[in-house]
Amino acid sequence: MHRAGNQEVFAQKHKVHSEEWVLNGGGEVRLLSITKAPKLDHKNNVEYVVCSAEDITERKEAEKRLIQSEERFQKMLSLIPDMISTHDPDMNIIYSNWSGFGAVPEEKRLLNTKCYWSYRGRDDICPDCQAVKVLQTKEAFQKEVKLTEGNWVDLHVIPILGQDGSVELFVEWVRDITKQKQAERDIQNLVENAPDMIVRFNTELEHIYHRITAGGSTGYHRPQTAAHTQGMRKVAKNIGEKINLTDTELSRLDISITMHDIGK
């Protein structure tokens, strides 16, 4: 390989660079970055070849470890069902896990494109964009937001500041909670339209409040036994299944249940 490189320099009269594994004097195999440059005479002929070499074994190993770490990090983020997207202040996408709200078609999964184009098909900044405020205030933002398309998201926007205090990047963590919001409305309608006794518990079966409507039961007692508690969990589970809640979504809701004469 060394001789072939020299021959190329003599023939082409230009510099040649290569990375080659060689055996050093201590019997170790090392990776060298080798540069070979021609020394031309007054007739523009190659008089001789100047060779220089740098041992880059440790650097290459560090680069390999960094790549492996980055690949593991990417795999972990790809498993998260929510969208995690990093942008520069000009709204260009620097990184995305393309999940959840960001699960756009493959042809739109392009880095260094505008987030409003990739995620929402717009030609300009979204009218409900919260990142604009974060770029101004330099403070993190979190809120449940109803988008102009009608769906609800739990939105986190986190600025990353540079040494001069300016926003270099910001991260958007977006969870679609449209289904949860619909479930909350369905439960609220159930409570408001129930003709009898309303008992509300949280997901740990702790009593929150009860209300007796006209003609409803008056014999309410908090559940005291394991059987009552287990029964309540079944009722809560049945309600969640009827409105298509997952266990995770159910755990984030207070459960409102219409019952007749419970605890008697």
What secondary-structure arrangement, pairings included, does this model have?
Elements: H1 2-12, E1 16-23, E2 29-40, E3 46-55, H2 57-78, E4 83-87, E5 93-96, H3 115-120, H4 131-137, E6 141-146, E7 152-161, E8 167-176, H5 178-193, E9 197-201, E10 207-212, H6 226-242, H7 247-251, E11 255-259
Antiparallel strand pairs: 1-2, 2-3, 4-5, 4-8, 6-7, 7-8, 9-10, 9-11
Q: Please, could you describe this protein's structure?
A:
The strands form three sheets. A five-stranded antiparallel sheet has the order 5-4-8-7-6. Strands 1-2-3 form a three-stranded antiparallel sheet, with helices on both faces. It contains seven helices and eleven strands. It folds into three domains: 2-61, PAS domain (Beta-Lactamase, 2-Layer Sandwich); 80-176, Beta-Lactamase (2-Layer Sandwich), CATH 3.30.450; 179-259, no CATH class. It is of the alpha+beta class and 264 residues long. A hairpin with a 5-residue loop joins strand 2 and strand 3 (46-55).
Strand line-up across the major sheet: 5-4-8-7-6
The name of the CATH architecture of the largest domain is 2-Layer Sandwich
**What fraction strand?**
25-35%
What's the CATH topology label of the largest domain?
Answer: Beta-Lactamase
User: In the residues, how many domains can be counted?
Assistant: 3
Number of helices: 7
Please provide a brief summary of the model.
The protein is of the alpha+beta class.
Task: Describe this protein with a few key phrases.
single chain, about 260 residues, alpha+beta, Beta-Lactamase, 3 domains, 7 helices, 11 strands, elongated, disordered C terminus
